[in-house]
Amino acid sequence: xxxxxxxxxxLAEYYSRPAPGVEDIRREIGDCCQAHKDESSCAKKSFxxxxxxxxxxxxxxxxFPFFWEVSVGRNRRDWGLSSPLSTYxxxxxxxxxxxxxxxxxxxxxxxxxFRGWSPVGYDHHCPGYDVIFxxxxxxxxxxxxxxxxxxxxRAERDFLEAVIRSNQALMGLANRFAGEADxxxxxxxxxxxxxxxxxxxxxxxxxxxxxxxxFYEAIALILFIRETYGSLEAFGQSTFGQIDRLLYPYYEAxxxxxxxxxxxxxxxxxxxLAFTDAKFGINDGFFSETSTTLVIGGCDRRGTxxxxxxxxxxxxxxxxxxxIGTKIIARVSGKHPDEYFSLLAEFTASCANILxxxxxxxxxxxxxxxxxxxGDARLYVGGGCHEMVLANTEVNTRADSWVNLPGLFLRTLxxxxxxxxxxxxxxxxxxxxxxAFYAACMDNVQRFxxxxxxxxEQYEKQWNCFDAAPLYSASILDxxxxxxxxxxxxxxxxxxxxxxxxxATFVDSLYAVxxxxxxxxxxxxxxxxxxxxNDWQGNESLRLYILNRLPRYGTGNPELDGFTKRVLRDLxxxxxxxxxxxxxxxxxxxxxxxxxxxxxxxxxxxxxRRRGAYLSRGIAPSEFTTVRSVTDSIRSLNTLDLTLFPxxxxxxxxxxxxxxxxxxVDSIAALIKTxxxxxxxxxxxxxxxxxxxxxxxxxPEQYPNLVVRICGYSQTFNSLxxxxxxxxxxxxxxxx
Length: 736
Fold this sequence. Notes:
By secondary structure, the protein is an alpha/beta fold.
């Protein structure tokens, strides 16, 4: 049954129109910033928030239950990064810090060793929902005023005063929604619309100024904060948070007091999920990364397992209406009951293909190893795709920097005579034994990691000078206490990550060098380099030997698993450098779709891969590795220590459509539970059939609702590019 269909259509119609022009308001912002040109970026940003909150038009929808839409020039498919109003400071200062960084990294981008565009990450963040639920914006303002009494120096006072002004502006915006609801009520409305508008008017006068008191207020507050932070602050607030933990106390109280029924609560969850699909035009077949996640499961700050009626309703809503735009992050652990694994298995078997399952038993200890308190580590959420961030306490700028590991390997393999134009790399082409070659390769990875992190640190230190974020900062624990903006390191944890791409390609290539050059002495390093430069021409028999006779990553071979464990351990030590906000760099392996682009620009590698073929994804086996069974993959994970990596490392499995049977559902439940106990970091499963995909390519009109998981997001198969369709179909050739 489709819920809030009328309201979702109102949204879709509104967002299908061009965003209202805001040129006059941008000029007003420019005049204000010029008049206060000697003020800090915190002060300027609070002025911008005041102008947006007071001047920009707002929109309410008579049959949609929430309030959030303020017209700041964001296009339909922007989740908060590109408003010409809230990005004013970033854009006008780009020549002083952003563009110089881009010039410094360009040679590495041109060499296909690096992808990145900013020294700081504006995307994949999480508002401090728990903090706002506890205090409301009025409480944040009171805390800033109290701290202001002991502030030392102009910088601390500027920040705290900006927090006060920005949050007052946001409270004023909420009151504008209440007034707009009153205005619409005065017009002719049907009774359903009038009931909805009265509810909005009452809620907007209470939240976000005050903590929510009901289930409706709580869920309305989540959407309001997520969207208005994006509109006013120009940060991609990519998650609705751990929604079953946040909402259940309000649902339980409302049920007890007779204020809500399960059916009414489920309808509100439907509306929250429908929002993303309607806003981004998912049903129109538009290909889009919505950068929206919703977290269920996991545990609370004390470690108590979270699994309740909200968990069940989220899954029920997704199965009923086939939402695509909101990625469901279902945290799992060995402590969860079998009923939870069965619920996730049924969700998976429905072919929704939007589910990601991070493992608490790995990611919480991993964050503890990187000096994060256990209570904080237990509240991690999905920050966009596979990236994880600690709710309320961490500002982690990442998903903006990717390193081509096989590309760095090839720089090591290249003979000294090979001109590279990148003198910081050292050739290992004359290494007398494998250990020397291995050391040279890891040294090059370390050199590159150091170079990129040094550049990021250099320019990240300037972030606060040009584009502070007092509104978002106020919701993050310790910023008000420290009297420092998040861009200046005010948060409890100030992390960045460089994501390494092509792990399996890297491991298999290193192992192939060990075997064919040093152990079996089939050829020397120079001859191997020439073979790869010629894309294996004239050496097809050697390529087939490597592909079919040498053990490969992820196939459960004990020797290769031990070798992989060593490589990943050594790669984890590449991080740890300081960043520009007083935090440290952490290691990561989330690939997004850079494994495709890097592969297209990377020459042949010793693992048997040809020039231009995709690199491996995340920590999955290479695209052309045949994996005989799920057991082999799980066995390989058991040998690794993924608690070395505080970021999610996705293992992707592709299962046939036959798993949708009752027996198949039971098998999936057992698989998920086994994964949770195996030491794997994150699991995502595509339920796909090769023949169906091939037919869908030939007859797309017959398969409008076929959904596939691309990497960190999901989309209908028909909306993919031809290259992406090829990649998805190729996965099913080795489906396990």
